[in-house]
Model the fold of this input.
Amino acid sequence: MADSVTVRRIGNSYGVILPKAELDKLGVVEGDKLFIVRTPDGIRLTPYDPDFAKVMEATREYMRDHRDALKALAK
Done:
């Protein structure tokens, strides 16, 4: 059975309160950021930033391709 949350007014905005058990499963605590990822079925909340992950993968690939030059520069 799916859990549900209620949209509530918080100041001039709206928000939802997530159950502590769900936050524990995500490994997040108060003050952590969650990222909204739009999917064909709606949205997904995740502590994982997919844009940052793409940049990191591109950086790792660049470093692999230019390993010798980076070693020379590090001397």
Remarks:
- The chain has three helices and four strands.
